[in-house]
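User: My instructor asked us to take a sequence, write out its structure as tokens, and then describe one feature of it. I'm not sure where to start. Here is the sequence I was given:
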Amino acid sequence: MPTATYDGTSVPVDEEGFFTEAGRWTEPMAVQIAGELGIDTLTERHWTVIRFMRNQYAEKGTGPTVRALGKTSGVSVKELYQLFPKGPAKTAAKIAGIPKPRGCI
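Assistant: Let's start with the prediction itself. The structure tokens for your sequence are:
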């Protein structure tokens, strides 16, 4: 299985770079992952989505879709695309250290 190194720690990832063990993630890793994905600064709105993604994963075993994110995270779909322009659910999941949500291509 492939690995990636964030914040000096090697973590297992899948072939697309998503964490396979969400428990290995830390907030400093999120900052580094975001930078690699072209997001230079994680604002409080980013963190709202990231923490929501992690909570949903912990509760349901998968991250939410963009539609579910827009309806339940307190962040509108329009704002999600402003925060995570390359695909909100997929990008936020990667930064949040959870596997790719079902339904994401």
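For the description part of your assignment, you could build on this observation: The chain has five helices and two strands. Try explaining in your own words what that tells you about the chain.
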